[in-house]
Structure formats: structure tokens, C-alpha cells
């Protein structure tokens, strides 16, 4: 006897799912029709109709607390005051992540919209791969009673505004989780790279330019007098910007620092590993240069930053990992902020302020 085809099983499953969706849609239409029979509930019925037209016929279902339980809030009386809360479930996709959906329970009190707002509750335990935390869950419960939520006024329907507000907050929460995970992966990869360097024990040291493809390069050591400070990552739409600063006393130290950074695998794999600018005062001569590293005009912007801050004897480097979403002019803002954060962390901004202050005082002293 031949086994039953899996294609047939799939077709039957799809037919059952379509039948269930169709039944739920018809059930909701019957429910709305009954609501329309009560003058107190016509605004609720009309609102559900509007939500269906916006989100689609299959986005809204009557809520059941458990499979097989009766529908919630089916009207059997002509007055809304005789009813408990009307509850229905809305399934929506995140606007910028259409493969990620959330489920929201809408609870309509008998006195809505005359004197009480509805309540929204997040039914989804996960958004994508991330478990929903109590902070997000609680903020959605307070959608209509929180300053950061949706303003509600008596006699006005507001479920649509509330659902859109929830969508925005869930999407922002989800993207924050993705950004944090991406930054965490980079930090874990960095730690792994530092602890698992693939080099032959008796082989002489080679620069990053001679490392074979696919091999994890050895960190190029810096002279003891060179210290690099690293600022916290700036994350925007999956792109990551990290600023670093190093005090230098001679232009010959610049390639040492840049080669050291490029020998770190997670940095060398970035879209723009070493966007940089530097200024170095040697005697009475000010040496300076910059490099865009493929990000047009980024290096000159960093050079301008050092110039207006009047900071000398410093190399500032920004690494950018591209997250797949173009940031437009925002990328230059983040590059400058990453550089400034590194300069501040290294104490360069304080020293520049002191230098300017001493210069002003010296100028005053020379006046007779």
C-alpha cells in the first residue's frame, strides 16, 4: 500500500487553515451585526469595521481565553451596560519588519467611548527571537493612561491610534534588541579573536599585509608609550560606529597605530575600518593629515573637528560597520560623535580647554 502523499497533507492543512480564517471572519461579521442592533454599541461596531478595512479581514478575531471557550462579549441584550467587556484580538506585522508579527488583545469596557478608554494588552510572548520583557508589556497596558501613550478624550473612539502607538513601540523595542545583539556579537568576536590567534609558534612576525586570506592575524603590538582609548559604540539602524583616540608625539607613530588596528580581524572586516585624522606639533611645525577610508569626506570632517577644537598631538580613528540600511547624512553625524566621544574619554577636550585658557591669560599678561 502506497503512503499518502505529503503534498495532499499540505493541501488539506492549507484548506483547514483557510476554512478557520473564513469561519473567524464570518463570526466577527455576525458579532458586529449584533452590536449594531444596540444604539449604545454602534460606535464600537463601526470602529471594528474600520479596523477591518485598514488591517484586512483576517487581522481581527474574537478573543477566546482558551480553545473551545465561548466568544467574549457576545451581545445578548439591547443595552451595553448589561454586557461585560468586549474583547477581540488583532494580529499586526511590524511596519519595517513584515515577517515579524504581534498579537494585541483589545478590551472594550461597557462605558466606552462615553466615559472610559479601552485597554490594550500584548499577547505575544516573543517578538521575533526576543522574549517580551515586563517593561514593554506594562507600557502597552498603560497606553491610554500614560503621558507617553495616547491621549484619550470621552466620546471619541481611539483603538486605531492605540494600535499604531503599540506598533511603533514594539518596532522600536525590537530594533533596539537587534542593535544590542549586533554590538554584542562584535564584542564577543573581538574577545574570541584576541584569545584564539592562529599563528605558527616559531614563525617570525608578519605584518597584516602578508597575512594569508582566511587566517586570523596576530595583533601588532604597540610601543609602550602609545595608548589607545576606545569609546562606547554608537548604533543606528544596525550600523555601528566606534571612535578611538591615541596621543602621538611624532607623525611616524600614525602608521603604527593604524596597522595595529587593522591587524584586529573584527576591525579589518568593517566597511570602513580606519577613517582617521591626526595633528602633530613637532617643534614649530604642525604636521597633519586625514584619510576617508572609502567614506567620502569623512576624514576631512574629522580633520575639521580637530582644527576647531584646537587639539594637537592626537590621532583619532572611527570604525564603521555597515548594517545594510543607508543612513544618509546621519552617518557623518555619528562619525563625528564617535570621534568626539573618544577625544573626551582620552582627556583631550579638557587639555584643549586648558591650553586655550592659558593662551588667553598669557595674552592678557602681555598688555601694559
Description of the structure:
By secondary structure, the chain is of the alpha+beta class. Helices cover 41% and strands 20% of the residues. It contains nine helices and twelve strands. Strands 7, 8, 9, 10, 11 and 12 form a six-stranded antiparallel β-sheet that branches. The longest helix is centred in the middle third of the chain and has 37 residues, at 159-195. The radius of gyration is 31 Å and the shape is elongated.
Topology:
Blueprint: H1 6-36, H2 42-55, E1 60-62, E2 86-94, E3 97-108, E4 119-122, E5 126-127, E6 130-131, H3 134-141, H4 159-195, E7 228-230, E8 234-236, E9 239-247, H5 253-262, H6 265-268, E10 272-282, E11 285-291, H7 298-309, E12 314-321, H8 330-345, H9 348-366
Antiparallel strand pairs: 1-2, 2-3, 3-4, 5-6, 7-9, 8-9, 9-12, 10-11, 10-12
Helix pairs in contact: 1-2, 7-8
Short description:
With 368 residues, the protein is of the alpha+beta class. It has nine helices and twelve strands.
Strand tally is: 12
| Average of per-residue pLDDT values | 78
Helicity, in percent?
Answer: 40-55%
Number of helices, counting only DSSP H or I runs of 4 residues or more: 9
Beta-strand residue percentage: 15-25%
Gap between N and C termini, in Å?
113 Å
Class from secondary-structure proportions: alpha+beta
Amino acid at each position: 500500500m502506497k503512503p499518502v502523499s505529503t503534498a495532499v497533507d499540505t493541501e488539506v492543512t492549507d484548506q483547514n487553515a483557510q476554512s478557520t480564517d473564513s469561519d473567524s471572519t464570518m463570526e466577527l461579521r455576525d458579532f458586529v451585526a449584533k452590536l449594531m442592533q444596540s444604539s449604545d454599541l454602534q460606535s464600537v461596531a463601526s470602529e471594528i469595521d474600520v479596523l477591518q478595512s485598514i488591517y484586512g479581514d483576517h487581522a481581527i478575531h474574537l478573543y477566546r481565553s482558551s480553545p473551545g471557550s465561548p466568544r467574549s462579549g457576545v451581545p445578548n441584550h439591547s443595552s451595553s451596560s448589561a454586557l461585560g467587556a468586549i474583547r477581540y484580538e488583532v494580529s499586526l506585522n511590524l511596519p519595517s519588519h513584515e515577517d515579524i508579527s504581534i498579537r494585541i488583545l483589545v478590551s472594550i469596557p461597557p462605558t466606552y467611548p462615553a466615559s472610559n478608554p479601552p485597554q490594550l494588552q500584548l499577547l505575544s510572548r516573543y517578538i521575533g527571537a526576543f522574549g517580551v520583557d515586563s517593561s514593554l508589556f506594562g507600557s502597552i497596558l498603560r497606553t491610554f493612561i500614560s503621558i507617553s501613550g495616547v491621549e484619550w478624550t470621552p466620546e471619541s473612539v481611539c483603538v486605531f491610534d492605540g494600535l499604531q502607538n503599540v506598533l511603533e513601540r514594539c518596532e522600536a523595542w525590537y530594533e533596539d534588541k537587534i542593535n544590542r545583539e549586533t554590538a554584542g556579537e562584535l564584542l564577543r568576536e573581538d574577545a574570541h579573536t584576541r584569545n584564539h590567534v592562529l599563528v605558527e609558534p616559531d614563525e617570525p612576525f608578519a605584518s597584516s599585509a602578508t597575512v594569508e586570506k582566511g587566517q586570523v592575524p596576530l595583533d601588532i603590538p604597540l610601543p609602550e608609550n602609545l595608548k589607545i582609548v576606545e569609546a562606547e559604540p554608537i548604533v543606528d539602524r544596525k550600523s555601528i560606529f566606534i571612535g578611538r583616540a591615541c596621543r602621538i608625539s611624532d607623525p611616524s607613530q600614525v602608521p603604527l597605530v593604524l596597522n595595529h588596528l587593522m591587524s584586529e580581524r573584527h576591525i579589518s572586516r568593517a566597511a570602513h575600518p580606519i577613517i582617521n585624522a591626526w595633528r602633530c606639533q613637532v617643534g614649530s611645525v604642525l604636521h597633519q593629515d586625514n584619510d576617508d577610508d572609502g567614506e567620502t569626506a569623512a576624514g576631512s570632517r574629522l580633520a575639521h573637528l580637530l582644527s576647531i577644537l584646537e587639539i594637537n598631538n592626537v590621532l583619532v580613528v572611527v570604525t564603521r560597520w555597515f548594517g545594510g540600511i543607508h543612513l544618509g547624512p546621519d552617518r557623518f553625524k555619528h562619525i563625528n560623535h564617535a570621534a568626539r566621544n573618544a577625544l573626551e574619554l582620552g582627556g583631550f577636550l579638557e587639555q584643549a580647554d586648558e591650553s586655550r585658557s592659558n593662551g588667553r591669560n598669557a595674552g592678557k599678561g602681555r598688555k601694559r
